[in-house]
Automatic annotation (TrEMBL):
It holds the Pfam family SnoaL_2. Residues 11-105 form the SnoaL-like domain. This is Transcriptional regulator. InterPro entries: NTF2-like_dom_sf, SnoaL-like. It comes from the Bacteria. It comes from Pseudomonas inefficax. Transmembrane segments: none annotated.
Length: 140
């Protein structure tokens, strides 16, 4: 197990709207952050993204289930995210599983998240969610 990735996961899991200065310890100034819904360049933009995330969502918790450094300065984190958002599923708790690929030197300079965007958003939006669940059932 990578000591760097373990420390990163612990710091990341402790993030909240009140300690976003921690991002400066985790990420380089030139961070590239990507997920299925966003592409963010630079630490100021990443900080703004997380500020908005923590302002709009509640009870955000990450649990890391697997940590793997595949070569020096590169590795993966498997995680489960639990959160509440007032506009998704009537504010009920949602659970999302995903994986993050990280590259780092002293701090992370590339962060790519992989997760099912439909499971995150589309299935929990009225009308659209029902249609997607119906379609998934037909394809199964």
């Amino acid at each position: 197990m990578s000591a760097y990735l373990q420390q990163f996961a612990e710091c990341f899991a402790s993030l909240d709207g009140g300690n976003l200065d921690t991002l400066e310890k985790l990420y380089s100034e030139d961070i590239t952050f990507r997920d299925p819904l966003h592409q963010i360049q630079g630490l100021p933009a990443l900080r703004a993204y997380f500020a908005q995330l923590y302002a709009n969502s509640h009870d955000i918790r990450y649990a890391f289930s697997s940590i793997d450094e595949v070569m020096p300065g590169q590795g993966y984190l498997r995680w489960t995210l639990q959160f509440r958002h007032p506009r998704l599923s009537r504010g009920q708790q949602l659970t999302l599983q995903g994986c993050s690929y990280l590259q780092w030197h002293d701090r992370v300079h590339f962060h790519q998240d992989y997760f099912d965007a439909a499971a995150l958003l589309y299935e929990h939006v009225p009308l659209m969610g029902g249609a997607i669940r119906w379609l998934k059932g037909r394809l199964a």
